[in-house]
Amino acid sequence: MKRSKKIILISHCILNSNSKVEGLSQYEGIFKEIVDMIYEEGIGIIQLPCPEMIIYGIKRWGHVKEQFDTLFYRENCREMIKPIIGQMKSYIDTGYEIIGVIGIDGSPSCGVNFTCSGDWEGDPSSKDDINHKIKDLKEINSSGVFMEELKRYLGQYNLEIPFVAINENDVYSSINDIEKFLGNRD
User: Fold this and answer.
1) Adjacent-strand bridge partners of 117
2) Phi-psi region of 140 (alpha: psi -120 to 50; beta: other; left: phi over 0)
3) What's the CA gap between 148 and 89, in Å, rounded?
4) How many C-alpha atoms does 3 have within 13 Å on its Cβ side?
């Protein structure tokens, strides 16, 4: 079988929804529709690491971008990205095409077009404080921290790779966008 020499990078939870914060996944195991589309196009997959899972583990609470926007978190994201950039560069240098990155909009780490934001600091033990934090939660037009660092790293190597995302609030509404991105439709 001939290689397509096309590769896509995808957020970790697309292949492993078990890595998501408990209660946030709208799909079981893998996002089969997306994986099937990638397979049908003969595109290889590089699964990005999940920085939230690696740093905070499975028993973490949901976070907002501001909580991850720290030097520590950003440096750890860059360390996780470093071997991925090496793989991409090796593929590109030998004639492969990195067709893009699929992220997860809404994620404070892997959002591409929007992410969650809020004033989530301090002691949440009082009911009033928790209600304030919940009311303050919003989506902003910004990438998540991990995707910002990936884009920054790609820029350092003059690698122009397009980004697209699954909308975490309604993952199935994103299927047409991903299909168009992959070239299944005109």
Assistant:
1) 138
2) beta
3) 19
4) 10
- The first and second tokens of residue 184, run together, are 């299944």
**What is the sign, positive or negative, of the torsion defined by CA atoms of 24, 105, 61, 147?**
positive
- Name the nearest CA neighbour of 118 among 59, 56, 67: 67
pLDDT, tens digit only, all 186 positions of the chain: 588 899 999 999 888 877 777 655 555 545 788 889 999 999 999 999 999 999 988 877 778 899 889 999 999 999 999 999 999 999 999 999 999 999 999 899 999 999 988 876 655 565 555 555 566 777 888 999 999 999 999 999 999 999 999 987 777 778 888 888 888 533
Interacting residues of 47 by C-beta distance below 8 A, sequence separation 6+: 9, 10, 12, 14, 15, 16
Element containing residue 130 per DSSP (H, E)? helix 127-136
For residues 14 and 175, give the distance between their C-alpha atoms in angstroms, rounded to a whole number. Answer: 13
